[in-house]
Amino acid sequence: MDLIAKERDRVLQRVARAYGLGFAIVSGLCFVLPGAAAGPTELALGVGLYVVLGAAWSMIGTSRHPVWLLLALAAGLGILATATRLGATTLSSGGMMALQLLISGSLAAVAIVLTGTAPRILGLGAAFVLVTATALTVTGASQAQLRTGGLLLLGWMLSAGIGLWVSSGVPQVSKRIASIGRAHRAERQASELEAQRRQSARLLHDTVLATLTLLAHSGVGVTPEALREQAAEDAILLRQLRLGSTPTPQSSGSYTLASGGEAEPELGRTLESVKQRFGRMGLAVNWHGTGQVLLPSEVLDAFLLALAECLENVRRHSGVTQAHVTITDDASTVRAMVTDAGVGFDIADIDEANLGFAESVVARLRDVGGNARLFSSPGAGTTVVLEVPK
Questions:
Q1: Distance between CA atoms of residues 317 and 304, nearest Å
Q2: Residue 273 pLDDT > 80, yes or no?
Q3: How far apart (Å, rounded) are the C-alpha atoms in residues 126 and 7?
Q4: Which end of the chain is more exposed for a tag (fewer CB within 10 A), N or C?
Q5: Under a CB-based contact definition with an 8 Å cutoff, are residues 361 and 368 in contact?
Q6: In angstroms, how far is CA 387 from the centroid of its own chain?
């Protein structure tokens, strides 16, 4: 609330400066018109007091010290006394116009600042009474007091209304900003929950579901030792998840737990690690092109995890035991082309909700600004092109 109150005061000060300084300038221009001042002495003194009044309003816009308000009121009352010679002189229409703009416009601008709290409202009442009494006293010979009082009351009510409107508007704006902040936090939380759900789905697909699929097919193409090792790693992973640990995907396709318990061995974050993993599972991977991938950590992880998923699809669905991976790069992009000479399939028959490709490959690459393209036809094998930015 302190911050809101400070911001409210800053807005009130700037509005009061614009309002009071604007009326002071117009009043001063009327005052220097020929015949407006009672004489050259009054003209000189009045111009000097207008300069002081303008300086006071300039400071009111940047400083909250009450001395500047007092100085503005003192300068304004000094102009009234000087111009009318303490009520002894009858002013011309131009001189009276200058004083009307002064008392009902420039001096009334203090009402904009003196709103919002009880002490300020008391100060506003005291300032209004002082200016009203002085104005009615010294302008009585130049203009009917009823007209002077009416103009003065109208000007001060307008200024006070502006101050109250600004004072009540700032808290409302603050509430709107707070509401937007709450909506943003709720949206961010929902996005984080969705990202967590997708990560959990990828985790299950990349590990446990892959092992269960092997078991359902009696481990065809995989040695019993490799199958037992993979199942043991999945068992460790599930046990640690149950204890509340956080899985961290490794680029080779395995997962490491962030805290607590037994963690599966570190397999590295290189192309060779991916090759060794699938060689152990019966899929020979032939590498072509560059042997190193220089990418930011999070991009490299997504790239190699998606590559590992493509090779897992070759191993499970292609009907062949060999795949080719070609790595190329240019100034802005790294590409991997995964090719097999297997049975292939009709791309139109792919279920759009298929988690293996949609989430573990396409969505994973898109999360880091990459893309994946799939090419296949029945009997002609399959090619997947993976692209990530450097």
A1: 20
A2: no
A3: 25
A4: N
A5: no
A6: 30
Q: Which residue has the tokens 């490794």?
A: 250
Give which of 85, 61, 84 is closest to 72, Cα–Cα: 61
pTM over the 0.85 mark = no
* Average pLDDT of span 87-109: 88
Confidence (pLDDT) at 215: 64
CA 150, chain centre distance (Å): 49
| Structure tokens belonging to residue 271 | 């192309």
What is the rounded distance in angstroms from the CA atom of residue 268 to the CA atom of residue 62? 61
Reading the block at residue 10, the tokens are 């800053």
Query: What's CA 371's distance to the chain center, in Å?
Result: 28
CA-to-CA distance for 12 and 19, rounded, in angstroms?
10
Amino acid at site 316:
R
Cβ of 149: how many Cβ atoms within 10 Å?
A: 13
User: Domain 207-389 is in which class?
Assistant: alpha beta
- Written as six digits, the tokens of 244 are 């509340």
Which stretch of DSSP H or E encloses residue 327? strand 322-329
- pLDDT value at residue 339: 95
Query: Cα 132 to the chain's mean position, in Å?
Result: 49
Which DSSP string do the residues of 112-155 spell out, in sequence order? HHS-SSHHHHHHHHHHHHHHHHHHHHHSTTTS-HHHHHHHHHHH
